[in-house]
Amino acid sequence: MLMDDMGWGDLGVYGQPARETPNLDRMAAEGMVFTDFYTANPLCSPSRASLLTGRLPIRNGFYTTNAHARNAYTPQEIVGGIPDSEILLPELLKKANYVNKIVGKWHLGHRAQYHPLRHGFDEWFGSPNCHFGPYDNKETPNLPLYRNMDMIGRYYEDFPIDIKTGEANLTQLYLKEALNFIGRQHNDDRPFFLYWAIDATHAPVYASKKFLGTSQRGLYGDAVREIDDSVGQILAHLQNLGIAEKTFVFLTSDNGAALISAPNEGGSNAPFLCGKQTTFEGGMREPAIAWWPGHISAGQVSHQLGSVMDLFTTSLSLAGLGRPHDREIDGIDLSPVLLQGKTIDRPVFYYRGNEMMAVRVGLHKAHFWTWSNSWEEFAQGIDFCPGQTISGVTTHVQQEHTMLPLLFHLGRDPGEKYPIRVTSAEYQGAIQQILSIVQQHQKRMVPGEPQLNVCDRAVMNWSPPGCEKLNKCLTPPASKPWKCSWPH
Amino acid sequence: MLMDDMGWGDLGVYGQPARETPNLDRMAAEGMVFTDFYTANPLCSPSRASLLTGRLPIRNGFYTTNAHARNAYTPQEIVGGIPDSEILLPELLKKANYVNKIVGKWHLGHRAQYHPLRHGFDEWFGSPNCHFGPYDNKETPNLPLYRNMDMIGRYYEDFPIDIKTGEANLTQLYLKEALNFIGRQHNDDRPFFLYWAIDATHAPVYASKKFLGTSQRGLYGDAVREIDDSVGQILAHLQNLGIAEKTFVFLTSDNGAALISAPNEGGSNAPFLCGKQTTFEGGMREPAIAWWPGHISAGQVSHQLGSVMDLFTTSLSLAGLGRPHDREIDGIDLSPVLLQGKTIDRPVFYYRGNEMMAVRVGLHKAHFWTWSNSWEEFAQGIDFCPGQTISGVTTHVQQEHTMLPLLFHLGRDPGEKYPIRVTSAEYQGAIQQILSIVQQHQKRMVPGEPQLNVCDRAVMNWSPPGCEKLNKCLTPPASKPWKCSWPH
Ligand SMILES: [Ca+2]
Ligand SMILES: [Ca+2]
C-alpha cells in the first residue's frame, strides 16, 4: 500500500495531534512500526521505480542529467519510462505463480512500451500520471484511467474531481478494486501481489462525499480519513477471508508531505525538516507499517533503517524467490527484522536527480550537498520548508559540502537544526566512517541511462489504447522533442 | 506527576522518533491520552501555582507588572511567593483526611511563609527552586533540599549534579520517596495526594549513572528514560499494592520544551511552534495522560481542551469535595471527560506575565499579542524558536494585534504557520465568537496582587531552617530590595 505525498507526521501513531487514523493506528498496534524508513527519492516517479526494481533511481534510469541535482518525474510530456532492462518485482513474482495487480498511479512512463502489463502486472486499474487538471484537451489532454490494456475514461470527464470542493470518489473505486481482486485470487487459490498505489493525498487532494468535512485537518485530513477507512476495510477483508496469516501487508509513502500545498492540501512531516523535493528528513523519511498476523508480532517498533527498495528484496524473499544477481540491488531483505526483530546495519543514500546529496550511517547523517530550491523559485512563493530556516542548511543555492560535510545526529537532533562541530571527536569519527562507505558506494556505482531528459508534447495522452471505443481520441501535435526543464 | 520542561513531542506515544518511553506509552495505552492539554503559563512557577490553585497566574499573583507581557518566576532572590489568601489543592484535600506529599520542585516561593507545609502539604522532599549551580556560597548560596520543614543539604555539595557528565541520582531519590510514601499510606489505609514534581528534564539536565548514554537522544533522552522507568515503577507499585483502581494518576508537564537548551538539554515540541517562554503551541501544549484502571477505559484519546488548572478542580471532584465558591476558579472538572468520554466546551487563555496573549476557542486560536523575545536577547543567541521563523508571528518586538487578531486553525495548521485571511468568512465568524468570550473573561478578571515584582539578595537561601544542624548556614547580605528585571 503506497501512499502519495503522505508525511511521517500524518498518522496518529506517528504523533499527528488530530489522531484521525484509527485503522492505521490499529494496523501499527497489531504489527511493526518503522521509525526510520526512507524513500529512495523525494519525488513520486523515481521513488516508485525504486520500489519496484529494488534499485536507486540513479541505477534504474529514473533521473535526469539535464541539470545538476534536480528531481525529475513523468509528466505527460515525458518521452522516457521504465527501461525493459529493469526487472520489476511482479515480473519475478510471476515465476512463483503470483497474480499481480496495480491499483492507482503507475508513474513509470505512459507510452505503450512502459505500460504496467508490459512489466509484469496482470491487471491495472488506475492512471499512468498524476491526476492534475482539468485540461482543455487542446493544449493538454485530460489524463486517462486504464483498466488493464485500455483506457476507460479521462479524469475530470468520466472520473470527476471537483477542484472547488475536493470531491471525488476515486478512493472508493480503488478500494473496490482491491477488495474484488483479493476476493478473486482467494477464490482461485492463487498467490497474489497487490500494489495499491492510491493518490488522494497528492494535490489536487480529494475525498468522496461521505468523508468531506469529517476531519479536523481540512480537505487533506478528509483524504487521510478515507484512506484510513479503506485500509481498515482491506485488512478486515483479509481477516474475513481467513487469509490474513498468509498475507504480508506493508504500508508506506512515496515521499514526504508536500509542504508547498499545506495547510489545505499538504500533510505533515513533523518533527522533520522541510518536505517533498528535498533530501532533508522531511522529504524522505516515511511512515511505514508492516502487518502480518501470526508472523509479525504485535506492538513492535523497529529503528531499522529501511527503504522502499527493501520491499522488492523482502517480497522476493518471502515468496521464496531469489533476487537478481546480474545487477546491483540496493534493497535489503528485511525479513529478519520483521520476523525475528533483528537490526541490520546499512547506510541510507539520499539522492536528488543525479547527485548523492546526503548519507545516513547509524544515527549520523552527512550532507554533501544542501538545497531547498532556487532563489528565483523561492521569490515566487515556492517554499519547500515553510516557516523553517536553518542557516547554511536550507540553502537556496546548491551548496557543496563535499570537502567538509555537514553532519547531524538524528537521535539528538531529528530536525537537522544543529550541525556537529567540525573540530569535535564525534565529527571526526563519524565522517571517517561515512566517507569510507561513500567511497565503496561510488566505486560500484554505474549510473543507468537517464530516462527523464527528453520531453515531447506529441507523446502526451492524446490517444491512449481504447480511446477509439470511447470516442475519446485526440489528435497529437507533430513531434518536437526538447530537453525537459526541471526547476528543482 | 508533573514533568519539568518536557515537551509534547518527547514521548513515543506523541510521536518522538526515538520511542524510548515504553512505560509512558503503556500508561497511555492503558488510559486516556490528551492531545490538546495546556499549561497556564509557559514557565515553571506560574504554571505550578496554577496547578495547585486552579487559577490563572494573573489571579493567584504569579506574575509581574514590572514590564509588559514578561514571564516571571521564583529565583532565589524573589521576595514573593504563594499568598496565604490562595487556597491550594492539598489544603482542601486535608478536609477529606488526605495525606499530602510533594516530592521535587516547589517553586512557589522559598521564604518561610511560602513553605509547602504551610500550604497544605504534610511532607516534602525536594527543593524550593530550580537546581541551578554550582554556586560559590558567597555571591550566591547553593540551593537547599528539604525534608519536610528542614533543609537536609545543598545541591552540588550534598546532592551532587555533575555538570560535565550530567550524572545525578536525584530521580532515584524522588522515586524512592514516592514508592515509600505510597506504601506508608497504603499501610495506614489513608487516602493520599502525591505531587511528584521531578525536574531531571530541566537544564542542567541529569540522569543517574545507570541511564547515562542509554538514549538515542543524548543526555536529555537519558533523563527521559530514567523518568519513564520511574513512572513504570510507581504504576507497578500501585498495582502490586492492589490500589491501582483506587488511585487516579495524571502525568503532564509544566511548560513546553526549552528549545534554548536543545539539542543536548532540551526536548521536543514537534509539530508545534517555538517552545518554553512563548504563548505559541510549543510553549504551552503539554503531554498529558490519565490513568485509572477500572475507571478510565484503556486506549482512549481525548481532544478535550484541558489545562493543568483542571487538575485542581477534577481532583476535588474525585475526592468528593466541592471547589471554593468565594473566588474565580479557571480549572474545570474533567471527570465527565475521563469517566464518560464527554467533551466540555471551554476556551483556553494564553497568558504571558500580565497580558492575555492569545485565546483558543474550538480549533481556532487568536493571537492578540505576539512575541518570541527581544532583538537584544535574540542577538545574544537566545532563541525560543530555533530554526522557525514565521513572518509577523514569531516577532522580536511585542506586536499588538488586538484590533485585528492573528487567527490560526489548529486542526489544519497545528504549527501556527498560516494566518487565516482577515477578509474570509471563517475569520469573521471565529473572531466574533472569540471576542465575545474574551469580553466576558475580561469583565470578570480581577488581577491578584503581583508577587513577582520585588527581588532582594537578602532573601536567598542563605540560612534555610535546619542549616544550623548541618553547619550549613551562610550569612545573608543586608536587605536591598529592587524591582526584579524580567528579560522575556
Ligand atoms: Ca508522491
Ligand atoms: Ca518548567
UniProtKB/TrEMBL annotation, chains A, B:
<dbReference type="GO" id="GO:0005764">
    <property type="term" value="C:lysosome"/>
</dbReference>
<keyword id="KW-0378">Hydrolase</keyword>
<feature type="binding site">
    <location>
        <position position="255"/>
    </location>
    <ligand>
        <name>Ca(2+)</name>
    </ligand>
</feature>
<feature type="active site">
    <location>
        <position position="107"/>
    </location>
</feature>
<feature type="binding site">
    <location>
        <position position="5"/>
    </location>
    <ligand>
        <name>Ca(2+)</name>
    </ligand>
</feature>
<feature type="modified residue" description="3-oxoalanine (Cys)">
    <location>
        <position position="44"/>
    </location>
</feature>
<protein>
    <recommendedName>
        <fullName>N-acetylgalactosamine-6-sulfatase</fullName>
        <ecNumber>3.1.6.4</ecNumber>
    </recommendedName>
</protein>
<keyword id="KW-0325">Glycoprotein</keyword>
<dbReference type="GO" id="GO:0043890">
    <property type="term" value="F:N-acetylgalactosamine-6-sulfatase activity"/>
</dbReference>
<dbReference type="InterPro" id="IPR050738">
    <property type="entry name" value="Sulfatase"/>
</dbReference>
<dbReference type="GO" id="GO:0046872">
    <property type="term" value="F:metal ion binding"/>
</dbReference>
<feature type="binding site">
    <location>
        <position position="254"/>
    </location>
    <ligand>
        <name>Ca(2+)</name>
    </ligand>
</feature>
<feature type="binding site" description="via 3-oxoalanine">
    <location>
        <position position="44"/>
    </location>
    <ligand>
        <name>Ca(2+)</name>
    </ligand>
</feature>
<dbReference type="InterPro" id="IPR017850">
    <property type="entry name" value="Alkaline_phosphatase_core_sf"/>
</dbReference>
<keyword id="KW-0106">Calcium</keyword>
<feature type="domain" description="Sulfatase N-terminal">
    <location>
        <begin position="2"/>
        <end position="320"/>
    </location>
</feature>
<dbReference type="InterPro" id="IPR000917">
    <property type="entry name" value="Sulfatase_N"/>
</dbReference>
<keyword id="KW-0732">Signal</keyword>
<keyword id="KW-1015">Disulfide bond</keyword>
<dbReference type="Pfam" id="PF14707">
    <property type="entry name" value="Sulfatase_C"/>
</dbReference>
<feature type="binding site">
    <location>
        <position position="4"/>
    </location>
    <ligand>
        <name>Ca(2+)</name>
    </ligand>
</feature>
<keyword id="KW-0458">Lysosome</keyword>
<comment type="similarity">
    <text>Belongs to the sulfatase family.</text>
</comment>
<feature type="active site" description="Nucleophile">
    <location>
        <position position="44"/>
    </location>
</feature>
<feature type="glycosylation site" description="N-linked (GlcNAc...) asparagine">
    <location>
        <position position="169"/>
    </location>
</feature>
<dbReference type="Pfam" id="PF00884">
    <property type="entry name" value="Sulfatase"/>
</dbReference>
<dbReference type="InterPro" id="IPR035626">
    <property type="entry name" value="GALNS"/>
</dbReference>
<dbReference type="InterPro" id="IPR024607">
    <property type="entry name" value="Sulfatase_CS"/>
</dbReference>
<keyword id="KW-0479">Metal-binding</keyword>
<dbReference type="GO" id="GO:0004065">
    <property type="term" value="F:arylsulfatase activity"/>
</dbReference>
<comment type="subunit">
    <text>Homodimer.</text>
</comment>
